[in-house]
Write a structure and sequence with these properties.
β8, α10 and β9 form a beta-alpha-beta unit. This protein has an 8-stranded parallel sheet. Strands 1-12 form a two-stranded antiparallel ribbon. Strands 2-3 form a two-stranded antiparallel ribbon. It has a single domain, classed as TIM Barrel (Alpha-Beta Barrel), CATH 3.20.20. The chain has 14 helices and 12 strands. The chain is globular and about 60 Å long. The chain is an alpha/beta fold.
Length: about 375
C-alpha cells in the first residue's frame, strides 16, 4: 500500500483495519517509531488491557431514538467528545503531515492539537480554519519558550496544552536499535533547531538526543504558575496520573487535566491511564475538565472514559494510522468511525447522549 488515493478507506470498518493498512504503508523503522513504546513496552500493552477490563452495565427501556454524541470541550460545543492528541513529525507518515490531519479534524468538527515538534509550522495549521490547540513543551531557553507561546496565540490557537511527563524522552528501544534518524524533509518546524535529529548516532535515537538538547528538564509547579500568568488562553496539563497532582493543577487554575502516560512512551511501568482516571476525576471534581489519553481505539473506549469521569478523550496513534494509510481521507475516516461507534455504544447502553453516559455504571473484574 502507498499514500494518498492508492488506499481506499470505505473498506475500513474499525480502527484496526487502518492500523494494518498503515503498517503495510510505512517503512519498518518509521512504523516502529509510531507504534513503539519505552522499555519493555509494559505500559504500552497495559493501556489496552486496562481498557478491555472495563465492562459497562447497560440500562434498558430508555428512549434512545434521538441519541446524540454532541458534547462540550473547554466550554466549546463539539459533535463528539474527541480531540486529536499531539503527535510530532507527522510528515514522517505522509507528505502532507499535520496539514492533512488538521483538515480532517476541521471536517469532523473536533479540535486538532498541534505539537511543539510539528513538522508543519503552526501558522499553516491554523490557516486551515479549524479549532487548534497548541501542545507546548518548555524549552531550555525561557525566552524562546515564551516566544513560542506568543506565536501560538498570534497564530490563532484556542488553548495551550502543557505536556509535563517528558523531562527527557523515554528510552524507546525500537528506535535505539534502529538508530532512528529523521529524514532531511522532516523537521521541527516551530523551533530553531540544530542538525542533531538528522545525524545518526551509534547507540541512540537521534530524535531522543535532539529532544534532550532542547527541552527543559526543570519544569515545575512554578513553571505552571508562570505559564498561567503568561497566557489568557485555556490551559490544559497533559501527563497527569496522580490524583494529588490533578488536584493541585486544578487549584493552580488549569482548565483541564489530561490523564495520560504518553501512550506508553515515557515511564515504562507507569499506571495505565484509564486506571488512574476515576481517582483523578474525583480529585478535581468541578475544578476543571478531565480528558483521557493513551490507548483509545474505539467508540466503546470513549464511552468507557465518559462513564469513568472524563469529559472526552484524545486520540493519537489511530489518527496517524489513517494519515499513513490514506492521507486526509484516512485521518477523517478514523474520526468518523469513532463518532459512529460512540453513537452505537451510547444507544446500546441505554444512553441518549454524553451526559447520560457519565451516569453509566462500570464493572472491573477482580
Amino acid at each position: 500500500m502507498g499514500h494518498g488515493d492508492e488506499v481506499t478507506v470505505d473498506r475500513a470498518h474499525c480502527l484496526a483495519d487502518l492500523e494494518r493498512a498503515a503498517a503495510s504503508a510505512l517503512p519498518a523503522e518509521v512504523w516502529d517509531f509510531v507504534a513503539g513504546g519505552s522499555g519493555a513496552e509494559t505500559t504500552l500493552d497495559a493501556n489496552r488491557r486496562a481498557l478491555d477490563r472495563v465492562f459497562l452495565v447497560p440500562r434498558v427501556l430508555r428512549d434512545v431514538s434521538r441519541c446524540t454524541t454532541a458534547a462540550t470541550l473547554l466550554g466549546r460545543p463539539v459533535p463528539v467528545p474527541v480531540a486529536t492528541a499531539p503527535v510530532a513529525y507527522q510528515r514522517l507518515v505522509h507528505p502532507d503531515g499535520e496539514t492533512a490531519a488538521a483538515r480532517a479534524a476541521k471536517a469532523a468538527g473536533v479540535p486538532f492539537t498541534a505539537s511543539t515538534l510539528s513538522s508543519v509550522p503552526i501558522e499553516e495549521i491554523t490557516a486551515i480554519g479549524g479549532t487548534v490547540w497548541f501542545q507546548f513543551y518548555r524549552l531550555r531557553d525561557a525566552e524562546r519558550s515564551l516566544r513560542l507561546v506568543r506565536r501560538a496565540e498570534d497564530a490563532g490557537c484556542e488553548a495551550i496544552m502543557l505536556t509535563v511527563d517528558v523531562p527527557w524522552m523515554g528510552r524507546r528501544l525500537r528506535d535505539v536499535r534502529n538508530r532512528f534518524t529523521l529524514p532531511d524533509h522532516v523537521r521541527a518546524a516551530n523551533i530553531e533547531a540544530g542538525p542533531t535529529a538528522h545525524q545518526r548516532h551509534a547507540d541512540a535515537s537521534s530524535v531522543a538526543v535532539h529532544t534532550g538538547e532542547i527541552l527543559s528538564s526543570a519544569t515545575t509547579w512554578s513553571s505552571l504558575a508562570a505559564l498561567r500568568e503568561q497566557t489568557r488562553l485555556p490551559l490544559l496539563l497533559k501527563g497527569v496520573l496522580s490524583a494529588e497532582d490533578a488536584r493541585r493543577a486544578a487549584e493552580a487554575g488549569v482548565d483541564a487535566v489530561v490523564v495520560s502516560n504518553h501512550g506508553g512512551r515515557q515511564l515504562d511501568g507507569a499506571l495505565p491511564s484509564v486506571d488512574a482516571l476515576p481517582e483523578v476525576a474525583a480529585a478535581v471534581g468541578d475544578g476543571c475538565e478531565v480528558l483521557l489519553d493513551s490507548g483509545i481505539r474505539s467508540g466503546t473506549d470513549v464511552l468507557r472514559a465518559l462513564a469513568l469521569g472524563a469529559s472526552g478523550v484524545l486520540v493519537g496513534r489511530p489518527l496517524i494510522w489513517g494519515l499513513a494509510a490514506a492521507g486526509e481521507a484516512g485521518a477523517r475516516r478514523v474520526l468518523d468511525l469513532l463518532s459512529d461507534e460512540l453513537r452505537d455504544a451510547l444507544g446500546l447502553s441505554g444512553c441518549d447522549g454524553v451526559e447520560a453516559a457519565k451516569r453509566l455504571r462500570t464493572f472491573v473484574p477482580a
